[in-house]
Structure formats: structure tokens, C-alpha cells
């Protein structure tokens, strides 16, 4: 009876694997990296590669809307971080798809991809920290956030993929701590959009950890990142860069 049950379970798993084999591989232990299918590889590349050109154009728009030096620096930092995220992610997933046999090369791309996330978070906060009036202590976050990005990158360099949960918590902490500082702004216009974008990132993490459970889970995570970044870009453009007369007219 027990053997029959085990055989039935095995048959059910084999059937499931046959149906989803093209779209999802079996889940792997936390200590190993999930291997996407050919379709998942293509989706991983496309879902971030598509946003490279829009991020370049978006950063350029902010730069040309800049009213002074600080606006230009903030636009350059934000545009570089935004574009850098999509470029490094696309390069890594392309390497993982096409040259996975070159393990050391793929590993370097993966490390750059993880490091880019820290600098993307820092650059996303920079316009708000640089262009809005902050409290006497909160203003130190303008440079502390870049220190955090450097520390996170050093962690990736020395302990890449060794403690995955610690790395995930590092990203979440870096995304949450500066948000508390933003609340000290005298002008809080745009905070609602920041919160909405943050929700997309947080919900997306569920899919980030669902490889082998949900087909195209990582590509779905990419889409959540893209939507969150789009909402944040809109908030930066709308509340920090749109000229005063246009802003007043649109209200």
C-alpha cells in the first residue's frame, strides 16, 4: 500500500514536471542556485533589458529639467543608478543563459548585479535627500546611504551567495531605514508615491524567493521592480523637477 502511494506521488510529480518543464525547473535547496529554463532565461533578460533605454531617457529628462547644480548632480546619480541596475541585471542574466559554462565569468556578473542593487537604492533616495529640507540629524543620511551601499557591496564581494538571508535582509534594511528619514522632510509631497513604489518592491520579494514554485518567478520579480521604479521616477519628476509654474498649473 505504501509503495503504491509513493509510486502514485512519483507519477504525479513526473506529470507536473512534464507539463511545466519548459517553463519551470524543480526547486533547489537554499544552499544552491536555481537553474532557470530556456524560457525563463529569455524572460529574465527581456524584463529588464526592455527598460535600459527608457531609464537612459528618463535620467536625461531630469538632467535637462535641472535648475541648479544640485539638481544636476541628483539627476546624474539617480539616472546612473537606475540605468546601471537594468544594464547589470540584463548582462548577468544574459551571461547566465549563454555562457553559464564559464562559471567564474558568470559569478563576476552575478556579483556586479547584486552590488548594483545597493547603489540603485542609494541613488533612488538621493534626489529626495539632496533636494528637500531635512531635519538637523536626518541630513546626514545624504552621505550615510552611500556608505551603506559601499558596505553592502563589500559584503557581496567577500560573502557572495554564502548567507542569502543576510543579503536579503541587507537590501530590505537599506530600503527601509532612509524611508524613516524622509518623514522628517518639511515638504512631504510625493511621500505617497514613494510608499506605493516601496510596496511593489516588497511584494515583488515574494516572487524573488519563489523560483521553482511559480513559473517565471524571477521575471515577475523584475516586473515588480520595473513598476516600483516607474512610480518612484514619476514622483521625482513630478515633485522635484517639474518647473514651478507648470506644477502650479497642473494642480
From TrEMBL:
Belongs to the ADIPOR family. The chain crosses the membrane at residues 48-66, 73-95, 115-131, 143-159, 165-183, 190-208, 220-241. It is found in: Endomembrane system. One of its GO terms (molecular function) is pore-forming activity. Keywords: Membrane, Metal-binding, Transmembrane, Transmembrane helix, Zinc. This is Monocyte to macrophage differentiation factor 2-like isoform X2. Zn(2+) binds at residues 93, 218, 222. It comes from the Eukaryota. GO terms for cellular component: endomembrane system; membrane. The keyword Metal-binding applies. It is a multi-pass membrane protein.
